[in-house]
Amino acid sequence: MIVKNYTAGSLVRVYERDWVVMPNNDPELLLLKPLGGAEEESIAILKTLGFPEDKVVDTRFPYPALSDLADFASARLLYESTRLLFRSGAGPFRSFGKLSFRPRSYQLVPLIIALRQEVTRLLIADDVGIGKTIEAGLIARELIDRGELKSFAVICLPHLCEQWQEELKAKFELDAVIIRSGNISSLEKGLPAHTSIYRHYPYQVISIDYIKTEANRNLFLQECCDFIIVDEAHTCANTSGKENSQQQLRYALLRKLAEKTTRSMVLLTATPHSGKPQEFQSILGLLNPEFNKPDFDLADTDTIKKSVHTLYNAGGWISGSSRKKSTHVVKGFPVKLSTNCQQHTPYSLIK
């Protein structure tokens, strides 16, 4: 039995771990949150039970010793890192204090769009070297720090798995495991009974060639998380362009994932359009089924404008008074412009 009454904020030790006492209105319960742990790891101990393993003792941080002294450069580094952490954490984005880099302004555009959507469905089609990995990682990291996301999976080509794992660790402090045919046995050995790898590991980098097969696809579809990042999405396009085609296993996998309307998906590609409208339409259909209907004409710009405007409204891209002024959103849709330059006029830098 726990006799002592601990006040909120006291440091205690139990279960070979240090905890901080949390406020509580029930005198028979002791609410504890682990030091350095997450909110989900908080526990409650019933004082009247009196189990031997529930023995709670006072603890405190050790006093500084001479061995803790370091050089001025290390102290200055600690000071600067703490200052930058507080400065970045005070902005509108909660994840900036945990980033090992400073994102460029244009890399924040997909993040802002994703935060305005109830269910994130984005196609990021930036050029090579722009930072699509960073843009997708920013979305995942921000949703995790906001408590809206607990797990995610990156589906990519086999030779890109290590690159994704290194980028997530180095830039976002996310320890992801690689899931593919070469290491699946070693991952399953350390699992608890009746637990799949897709439930046990919160952050995953999965080879699409491993997961697309029928033997592995069914379990993944059942246990898959609700946030998916697909790299090189153009390699998963439906080459036939038919709505019910199952010729490509990659496309069949992504289409099954997209059928769950509450699942967020971020598609990354540097070449979204290969010149074949049917393949591009199949990629858009993963974001919104309306774009993948047989009667949907990509050449009909008026229909596309209306569909995009409807998608913006459904995704929460228009809010407040802007929702009433829908014409302002459609007005900014790109249109082709022609110039009246004289083709036969010679060009010269010097007149």
Structure, described:
This protein has 351 residues and is of the alpha/beta class. It has two domains: 11-58; 98-319, Rossmann fold, CATH 3.40.50. 33% of the residues lie in helices and 13% in strands. The chain has twelve helices and eleven strands. The chain has helices at residues 72-89, 109-115, 132-145, 161-172, 184-189, 197-200, 208-211, 214-223, 249-258, 277-287, 301-315, 326-331; strands at residues 11-14, 17-21, 29-34, 43-46, 57-58, 121-124, 152-156, 177-179, 203-207, 227-230, 264-268. The strands form two sheets. Strands 6-11-10-7-9-8 form a six-stranded parallel β-sheet, sandwiched between helices. Strands 4-3-2-1-5 form a five-stranded antiparallel β-sheet, with no helix packed on it. α2 packs parallel to α3 (132-145) and α3 (132-145) packs across α4 (161-172).
CATH first level of the largest domain = Alpha Beta
Unreliable residue stretches: 243-247, 315-333
What is the radius of gyration? 26 Å
Number of strands: 11
Outline type: elongated
Strand order of the largest sheet: 6-11-10-7-9-8
Average pLDDT confidence is 81
Percentage of residues in DSSP E strands: 5-15%
| The CATH homology group name of the largest domain | Tandem AAA-ATPase domain
